[in-house]
Write a structure and sequence with these properties.
heterotrimer, A mainly alpha (about 325), B alpha/beta (about 400), C mainly alpha (about 290), B: about 400 residues, alpha/beta, Rossmann fold, six-stranded mixed sheet, 15 helices, C: mainly alpha, 12 helices
């Protein structure tokens, strides 16, 4: 069984337009971030959380959307980054947010390498199960190492210092929000460049036909491992952002639930495109926040209905379907 | 940047005087997901208190805002607490079923000038994280220490302890061990089992092989408890005379109908039984049963929430509806009243509730339902956990 | 030695309960190629119906089992026509999204309708209590579950390998277009297999309720276990699922006896090891 993807139309865009799309992407993110700040100044904590999870979903998109590796254990990378950043601050007194983020990136990349080595031994359904086994092992390990991680009580005592020595992480979350937006922008630009590089194209090729890639003399496995490490770094960034902004890390950062939710958000937005990943996260989390505040007791049914509706009416994901519709209309008018 | 914060703070302060007639209380708890039952009990306790005591304190109307955290998720908890304080402008935070969720929210209390009333989360250490926290539930140390004495007095000298491998389980294991060795008994083996355990037969075999005369157990309520108690019966431990001791989380009233005859005779110590015999409790149970809709679903988180509301009402009275977290907390230090669970007071030093712990036995009530029948009272128990972990 | 026997019996009983609940999922995933994460939800519906019939209506265990299977299938038919039919042959991730959505909905509805408490299914008289095996006691219900597992395994194997329906099913799975051209009504075949899978889920939910008690979160709580068992066995293979259940049951039980603290580690390390050696599961086909 191979994981078939469903939005080739988004990916095979001519290269000449790529730079234009980069710019548009950056502008869209900046405008959305500014809008969020102006319109919802009291919800910055939620918006920052969305930024952190968006990084996780982007990272998942790299391996699932671009390389066709289905995983239900991607929070292992996210959680490793979160714990690394948290431990740096809580145990070693390294409170510089940039150093903490860097620690998260390194830990995420190492976790990515570890997961890749195991994950790439199987395909399809067994691969999915490998990822589940991995996330449970990570979870148990963090639970056991409670002197370092705080176990099920969570790791508290994370006190990130002010950014550039000026901007404190406070109750209102302005600093955390701008810090998060900056991280997302940097990651987005770097990923756009990466995915356009020969290496990025190679990875897409692997998803479509690994046999042919091997025949061309490239090693699919090495490329996938590399991509996994990069994905780990991105997820680690998200984890570090989560640790810095909430100042607490707990086992749920390494949980199956977190992994599964990330996958749901990705598919909801549309796999194989960075915009799809971000859109999926935004839509899912805002929707969840809205319905769970409106009815804290029975909101799960509404989320379920949303997922079913998306499959029925937007089978390529919300963003993917929108793009497909637009491009079809564009062709029709030409 | 700093200016913005100042403005925001000023706006907040202005707001709080402008809307003094509605006081919002933000309640964070598990209202959906695997622990929905406990969240439902929070709401029942709060509704019951407000039904019996009115929705007004002085001229101020109390409004409750619920926010859902299905499982322990501190990042989400912090985001929700922040949102409640900054956006909804709540003056009190309450609820909190899980320790990590409470721990995540305590650091922002001071900045938000908001007191927190914990209605369940049972780890001793939470109280140390902020001076603005008051707790009206219990700690695992508080409920697990007396059972050690009960076990020893029942003639059991060798006990094996079996707990779920997470914070509260480890607390229970330590509390029991400390109490039991102090009494002169011996804990022959301490087993920690993963939270997600479905089949308890191998554990029962292990208990049998250990040669212990009794077993002390702590597991989260729900499916695991049911599995554990069933396995205890099915594998012949009950007939072999191995005695069963636990804190009352294991025989939560809402689980009793499912446990059925299998649970009969199990001895637990806890701070509250729905069957507690007092006029205060009768009034409470009637009101809470009405609020929850089905009396069989009622259990201990409801009483924690009910007393939590009592503390919040007292805080509002003391501050006259103004936002002054320190004054509010100061006002309830040493407060004592008669709760549905019996006489209670807030310990001025730890801000944790001092209360009676009862020894109970699962029995069949007069109407054929299963109840926790109180047989003995350990009066005025504080929290031994803080001293032990210092 | 006694301990070894004792563990072996526990392992067998646990493995067979897992088998009864998971085999329906093996049918949907292997034969129909649908990653059906809502399998646990159907098992839960079965459990609720059985609990209602046996406890609230007092109609006895046998009636409860039959009612659970029949009513769950009746509930599942419209779901199959309206929702599942849209995802046959779709990419796996789309199927994951749809079936998780269905699971969320069913959990929410169950919580609303049945309340969040545990529901039990009162056993028939002869199934209650424990049997003495000489060196230890075991509940009679466990023995019953072992027998159920064996009967289900044998029955399914006979249907798939020996009946004309089995032939049509395998043909539709291998090449739907060709089978349809040869006059097999593939839609009908799929609908029937789906009904069988759901019926098995409900049956498993009822029989396994002593071990995995029925409550609203059931559908998600055990989903991972079912998925792991089916994949390790190789989706669609009945002997594979049987072997996987017995092996994983044995590892889980032994691990929990020897080193309960590391019970989870044992189980998941074993899963990783097995998949590294058998990358398609014990009896997986090449697809």
């Amino acid at each position: 069984m191979t994981v078939a993807m469903n939005n080739e139309t988004i990916i095979n865009r001519p290269r000449s337009g790529a730079l234009k799309w980069d710019l548009i992407g950056i502008i869209v993110i900046v405008v959305c971030a500014a809008l969020g700040y102006v319109l919802f100044p009291d919800n910055l904590a939620l918006l920052t959380r969305i930024l952190a999870v968006a990084l996780l979903v982007l990272s998942l998109d790299l391996v699932t959307g671009y390389c066709g590796v289905a995983t239900l254990g991607h929070a292992a990378l996210f959680g490793s980054g979160a714990y690394a950043a948290g431990i740096l601050s809580a145990h070693f007194g390294i409170n510089n947010p940039f150093l903490m983020t860097f620690g998260g990136i390194i830990a995420g990349a190492i976790a990515g390498l570890f997961c890749a080595v195991i994950m790439l031994r199987a395909h399809g359904l067994p691969q999915l199960v490998l990822s589940i086994a991995l996330i449970y092992l990570f979870h148990e390990f963090a639970n056991k190492a409670s002197s370092w991680t705080g176990g099920s009580d969570g790791l508290a005592g994370i006190m990130p210092g002010p950014v550039f020595g000026l901007y404190e992480f406070d109750l209102f979350g302005h600093t955390a929000y701008f810090f998060g937006v900056a991280l997302l922008l940097i990651v987005f630009v770097l990923l756009r460049i990466l995915l356009r590089s020969p290496f990025g194209l190679l990875c897409r090729g692997i998803r479509e036909d690994p046999l042919r890639i091997r025949a061309m003399g490239a090693s699919p496995k090495t490329a996938l491992v590399k991509m996994y490490v990069i994905s780990g770094a991105v997820a680690g960034t998200g984890g570090a952002l989560s640790a810095i902004s909430t100042q607490v890390v707990a086992l749920d950062a390494l949980s199956f639930t977190q992994s599964a939710e990330a996958l749901v958000m990705l598919v909801l937005g549309g796999t194989g495109s960075l915009f799809g990943a971000i859109a999926g996260t935004l839509i899912f989390m805002l929707f969840e926040d809205y319905v769970s505040a409106a009815n804290p007791f029975h909101w799960l049914t509404m989320v379920g209905a949303l997922l079913i509706a998306v499959v029925l009416f937007a089978p390529k994901g919300i963003y993917g379907t929108a793009v497909a519709r637009f491009s079809r209309r564009g062709e029709g008018s030409q | 940047m700093k200016k913005i914060i100042l403005y925001a703070l000023a706006a907040l302060a202005l707001n709080s005087t402008a809307y003094a007639d509605v006081i919002k209380v933000g309640v964070v708890g598990p209202f959906s997901g695997p622990f929905a039952l406990q969240g439902k009990n929070f709401k029942a306790g709060i509704d019951a208190y407000m039904a019996l005591n009115g929705k007004k304190v002085g001229s101020d109307t109390i409004e409750i805002i619920y926010r859902d955290i299905p499982t322990a998720d501190p990042a989400q908890s912090k985001a929700l607490a922040q949102e409640l304080i900054v956006k909804e402008k709540v003056k009190y935070l309450a609820g909190f079923y899980f320790t990590p969720d409470a721990m995540a929210a305590t650091p922002i209390l001071k900045q938000g000038n908001v007191p927190m009333v914990i209605m369940n989360a049972a780890t001793s250490a939470i109280m140390k994280t902020s001076p603005l926290v008051v707790r009206t539930s219990f700690t695992t140390w508080q409920t697990s220490t007396p059972i050690a004495k009960v076990a020893f007095d029942a003639g059991v000298k060798k006990v094996i302890s079996v707990v779920s491998d997470y914070g509260p389980g480890i607390d229970a294991e330590n509390a029991f061990k400390a109490g039991f060795t102090k009494a002169g008994g011996e804990v022959v083996e301490s087993i920690r089992i993963p939270l997600a355990t479905n089949d308890f037969s191998p554990i029962m075999q292990r208990i049998k092989d250990s040669g212990a005369q009794g077993v002390f157990a702590f597991l989260p309520s729900g499916p695991t408890t049911l599995g554990f108690v069933k396995a205890y019966n099915d594998n012949g431990l009950k007939t072999a005379g191995i005695k069963f001791f636990a804190p009352g989380d294991l025989t939560q009233e809402s689980d009793l109908p499912a446990l059925g005859d299998a649970a009969l005779g199990i001895q637990t110590t806890f701070h509250y039984a729905v069957s507690h015999d007092s006029p205060e409790n009768k009034t409470f149970v009637d009101a809470a049963a009405k609020a929850i809709g089905n009396k069989a679903e009622l259990s201990f988180p409801a009483v924690g929430a009910y007393d939590g509301m009592h503390v919040i009402y007292k805080m509002i009275e003391a501050t006259g509806g103004k936002q002054d977290a320190e004054k509010a907390v100061e006002a309830v230090k040493g407060l004592s009243w008669t709760s549905p669970r019996g006489p209670v007071s807030i310990d001025p030093e730890s801000r944790h509730i001092t209360q009676n712990i009862y020894l109970r036995e699962v029995a069949k009530g007069t109407d054929g339902t299963y109840i926790n029948k109180e047989t003995k009272t350990f009066e005025k128990q504080g929290d031994p956990g803080l001293a032990a972990t210092k | 030695m006694q301990t070894v026997f004792s563990i072996a019996i526990d392992a067998l009983a646990y493995g067979m309960v897992l088998f009864v609940i998971s085999i329906g999922l093996s049918v949907t995933m292997g034969l129909m190629r649908v990653v059906n994460l809502a399998h646990g939800a159907f098992a839960m519906i079965g459990g609720y119906i059985a609990s209602y019939v046996a406890r609230d209506l007092g109609m006895g265990y046998a009636a409860a089992v039959i009612a659970a299977v029949v009513i769950t299938i009746v509930i599942a038919i419209p779901i199959e026509r309206l929702l599942y039919r849209r995802i046959y042959g779709q990419p796996e991730l789309t199927q994951v999204l749809m079936t998780i959505g269905i699971t969320f909905c069913i959990i929410g509805i169950a919580n609303y309708v049945m309340g969040p408490t545990l529901k039990t299914i009162p056993l028939a008289g002869p199934l209650q209590g424990s049997a003495d095996l000489g060196f230890r006691a075991i509940s009679i219900h466990r023995l019953f579950a072992i027998i159920c597992g064996l009967v289900v395994a044998l029955g399914l194997w006979l249907v798939i390998e020996k009946t004309s329906f089995g032939v049509k099913l395998r043909a539709s799975v291998d090449n739907a277009a060709m089978a349809a051209a040869l006059g097999v009504r593939t839609e009908f075949v799929y609908a029937v297999s789906f009904a069988v899978a759901v019926g098995l889920a409900a049956f498993g939910g009822v029989v396994g309720a002593e071990l995995l008690p029925v409550e609203p979160y059931y559908a998600l709580r055990y989903m991972v276990t079912f998925l792991v068992v089916v994949s390790v066995g190789g989706a669609g293979s009945i002997p594979g699922a049987l072997i996987a259940c017995l092996v994983l049951g044995a590892i889980d039980t032994t691990g929990r006896y020897l080193m309960p603290e590391f019970g989870e580690f044992f189980f998941y390390l074993a899963v990783i090891a097995i998949i590294c050696v058998f990358p398609r599961g014990f009896a997986g086909r090449v697809t």
